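Cont'd.
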Amino acid sequence: MKGFRSLWTLTAVSIKMYFRNRTAVFFTLFLPLVFIAVFGLLSKSSAPIIKLDITNQSHSELASGFITALDKISTFDVTQTSEQNAANQLGKGKIDLQVIIPADFGQMNSKTHQIEPTQLTTHYNQASPGNGQTANLVLGQILAGINSGISHTPQIISLDSTGVKTNNLTEIDFLLPGILGMTIMQLGIFSVAFAFVSMKTTGMLRRIQATPTHPVNFVIAQAITRLIIGVLDVALLVGLGVVFFGFHLLGSLVLFMFFAILGTLVFLAFGFAVAGFAKDENAAAPIANIVSFPMLLLSGVFFPSTGFPTWLRAITDRLPLTYLVDALRSIANQGTPITQLGGDVLGLTIWGIVMFFVAVKVFSWE
Amino acid sequence: MADYLIEVSDLRKVYSGGFEAVKGVSFSVKKGEVFGILGPNGAGKTTTLEMIEGMRPITSGKATIDGIDVAKDPYAVKQRIGIQLQASSFFPNLTLLELLKLFNDLYADSSDPMELLKEVDLEDKAKSEAKQLSGGQKQRFSIATTLVNKPVAIFLDEPTTGLDPQARRNLWSLVQQIQKKGTTVILTTHYMDEAQVLCHRVAIMDEGKIIALDTPKALINQLLGRGFKPKTTVAPATLEDVFIDLTGKELRD
């Protein structure tokens, strides 16, 4: 129980110290948010959003189904409003396309039990005809689908549209998992290496050794603190991404968290190893940079590594950050389940175990 | 033998490189005394102290504190003693009060942090961080952290090195005050005046061995008995006396 009390206290103290350390908070919590905000804003403006105002005068199921179909297209920003209002908006250039669904749209003829033919009216903004015409084409496609469905025309040629999903993904969907992976790496390597080396050089670790508390409690407390910060980072970045920048987390958030935690553990082992190698703070910085910088460039954080020559990919594919970023990205972008991420789990685990033993080997309390 | 708190016999330390830092040291410390280990730099004072404290593995020999074998149960020993390290510093971003609470928990003890700060005359610094303290204040705080677990003995490694004369005198009276409450004090120093003022008995170490052990008075008498004559006639006052007289005794921190 005594051991538990000191572990608990050391963890609480270590968290308190972490949040009072402005540099640590800046680099591991604030800076990643700035990254996401900047890249989020950049990628937001590059993705064209087509604004539609729809006036639905029909009460039929077909009409509401049609609107739902439009709503699902993520490049469409669909608003339902009155005809007058929509016309105003179009006139001001605030929307790209005005769609009017007539009252008889999808109405059943009581005698023939068939849907009455009707006409959909659209007006597009002549100042930016591109967006309006694109929207018109998509509308035409959907209507053609509805038509052939109603008239039971056999579909002779169909379009395999699996690509649509990836087209919906924007820059932020690529970058956010990368930046998260980078943050987790920095959190593990830098914050642990610096904190530990400074505790070593100032003699604080020795001072703990002078108490009946085993200093391994202190190591565990430091690790728990980083794990908490790691989880906080995921929550903040994903939250910010989803709420403000249209980030898609198609897979499970729990699985996403699992990889973030596994990644933090792996890079904590790296951090402790660096702390073991480094004699003082001046030595810690270059060692930490030598370890992390190549991964930052080669692990597909900011740009995909698919363009690298084969021999280089043979190396970069096996870097721990590559496994982490790859897993985070496929969970977010493709909703990949854990069963298909065995390779990443294995890669990270092996790195974690190897670095743990390296850290134990080179670690010293003084 | 019951009045010996610490017993050290034939303690030896050989570092992994083969360097023998301590070459068979034996001594006993009485309950309630201030015991000094003197010696030039590199004499093995700190290594000896750290072996007794359970901070450094013992190559051979034996050390017991309060009847507990240090090598067998270093944690039980650490629970009973207070250790001040040479030039120890503290966690950044924590106040003195928070640090003392932390030490409370590390010892699973429940001392009143404010009471401890009062004891070392730092209660007005409770909300400051350790790095904001002056040299003398730091050492006093450091001693406060050794008292958290109400130890039977405290170990002070060069507690006055780098302090100005006023702060040194202030620390001396703190040590005497702690000793008067019944705590045994073991300290290292290379200031002979300090040893003479504070220590009931001193061991002089050189090159890993104890070359003399007695009360300061007895050691001086032995030297005089060997026919020693000071090179210069002893002045009735020293330059330090002048300094203290001119600048006053009160603390400057």
